[in-house]
């Protein structure tokens, strides 16, 4: 993307610094005179919202950690101390606690935007893969953060999820022992989770910077999925896009505030207000809502599930199959730039794939619903159908539709869609 | 140990879910509470009566260790009243200059003194059952997102943890005298479920099974599995209220639930008060940002 010549800075100090370290030129190029397609809709604001989430999570997290004690005997009490005795501690904690859910809501919509408008296609493949890496890091961070209050769900969630790694052949058991720091979920586990929960957000921050650098190479995709042909197709990032993003950010903070002040525990689990008790298992162990689709895939792999049969034939047991299915579901998303054979980016111009795209989203929602229900009765069958469809969509439908679909004619440019349509 | 944890986790993962699914859990009826909604505040008179019930009845077995005596000033007590209240309890302190631990009268800064020194002592005195600490009981018994369709509206009205108070109220008023009345009640529920088609095929094949309350336990309608270790703790006129309110069983249950809701969420009033101000401000700010954007984008051709 062209972004014009370097500006002449009036302030002599700024000029002096910029010659030696061109931060001001950089900011000018990348955030001021940076051209973005003028037809971006509000789906393009979710990246900015996610960045804000990350910053809020880091800031509140740093303050919370000043009052938190990572020890099995004190963790729960220290969180309750934050809630009761620390000035505005309840506010900080509820912002942080709901922030995790908000972060995932925003990121899932951000991913949907990428899927629907084909933002993963050339030349944005690395940008897309970095996004999947961020998602994986977020999942790890969120999982370990949920363990820190050391409530019943913290403890049992940690037990179930860390045990997943034991399904891997040979390396499985050593990995689990390493995660636990012993032979069960205990104080060493809590200690290392706390350490990693503090570390990973900064790793995420680093990958987000790479994600943004990669985005600035090709520029933003747009709802039409065609490249801007010149200045008539774009607006400057500042002030046009920032003005739009500000609206989205304020609306988002409003949504977040509603949960913080009026339903702070809605997205949590009541059992986590019971201190961890290794001898008492909760009736239902449920992960946080943002993990439910993966959890449903994990549990769908039972001996009567046809997708499992070929795996059983080469000697993979059902538990390992579930783990592979769960991680595979995300790896396939990262491979989407190569699975999708269509040259057309935006689903707007893909009359067939558009509907399958939306069906895929519905399928993930069904998976999420099943993940929150006990694995019994018809929920199992439903989650197996949905799991099958998930893989069928990515592995079969996406390439095949790309080959056979006749896309609608693309507009000549962002500014002249009507002429092209005629 | 490790193997059993592993087996358990695997079982959970693959979907064994225990006895809960059999329909033992009964959703308590919704009660009217003063602190629900967007501007809710605790009924202080009721909470004060609840404190009296806690002190005279519950505290023989249940602790309240996360609440400090000084917190009682939130309920409208004066500092002197709190000091006098705290002074009735003894806490262990020390070591003193001789290295000895000693007992002293509690001060407002102390947390509520628990009735037992530790969980084992509590179990030993209660036939093996552990009376839970009540500091967070209303939050811990609320219904979460696991039951979205049922409770979504309630949560969106800012009434989330009220479902925990509903449970406390239902539990305290949900005892049956003996197995005969218990089974009459269970049969009635069974028949109703059968009529409305809410029984599973498996349940229909098995038929109605008489409930036999376990040795040393009591039948409670709302306790999961119905066998509760706590003897019916309250009854009409079980306490004599200092403010002259008639102490029916229902009144006592309401008051203790209100008090415990406050104990679980002492920040609730401050939170809701701040909430509408923040939201009002954000709505105003949203209007400004929309106006600014519209003005800016006026000259951009579609």
Automatic annotation (TrEMBL), chain A:
GO terms for molecular function: metal ion binding; oxidoreductase activity; quinol-cytochrome-c reductase activity. Belongs to the cytochrome b family. It comes from the Bacteria. Keywords: Electron transport, Heme, Iron, Membrane, Metal-binding, Respiratory chain, Transmembrane, Transmembrane helix, Transport. Residues 227-412 form the Cytochrome b/b6 C-terminal region profile domain. Its cofactor is heme b; heme. Heme b b562 binds at residues 96, 197. GO terms for biological process: respiratory electron transport chain. Component of the ubiquinol-cytochrome c reductase complex (complex III or cytochrome b-c1 complex), which is a respiratory chain that generates an electrochemical potential coupled to ATP synthesis. The chain crosses the membrane at residues 42-64, 91-111, 126-148, 160-183, 195-214, 246-263, 320-339, 351-369, 381-404. It is a multi-pass membrane protein. PANTHER family: CYTOCHROME B (PTHR19271). Its main location: membrane. Residues 13-224 form the Cytochrome b/b6 N-terminal region profile domain. InterPro entries: Cyt_b/b6_C, Cyt_b/b6_C_sf, Cyt_b/b6_N, Cytb/b6-like_sf, Cytochrome_b, Cytochrome_b_C_euk/bac, Cytochrome_b_N_euk/bac, Di-haem_cyt_TM. One of its GO terms (cellular component) is respiratory chain complex III. The main subunits of complex b-c1 are: cytochrome b, cytochrome c1 and the Rieske protein. This is Cytochrome b. It is found in: Membrane. PROSITE patterns: CYTB_CTER, CYTB_NTER. Heme b b566 binds at residues 110, 211. A ubiquinone binds at residue 216. CDD domains: cytochrome_b_C, Cytochrome_b_N. It holds the Pfam family Cytochrom_B_C. The lineage of its organism: Bacteria, Pseudomonadati, Pseudomonadota, Alphaproteobacteria, Rhodospirillales. Binds 2 heme groups non-covalently.
Automatic annotation (TrEMBL), chain B:
Binds 1 heme c group covalently per subunit. Gene3D superfamilies: Cytochrome c-like domain (1.10.760.10), Cytochrome c1, transmembrane anchor, C-terminal (1.20.5.100). Residues 45-172 form the Cytochrome c domain. Heme c binds at residues 58, 61-62, 230. Its cofactor is heme c. It is found in: Membrane. InterPro entries: Cyt_c-like_dom (IPR009056), Cyt_c-like_dom_sf (IPR036909), Cyt_c1 (IPR002326), Cyt_c1_TM_anchor_C (IPR021157). This is Cytochrome c1. It comes from the Bacteria. Keywords: Electron transport, Heme, Iron, Membrane, Metal-binding, Respiratory chain, Signal, Transmembrane, Transmembrane helix, Transport. One of its GO terms (cellular component) is membrane. GO terms for molecular function: electron transfer activity; heme binding; metal ion binding.
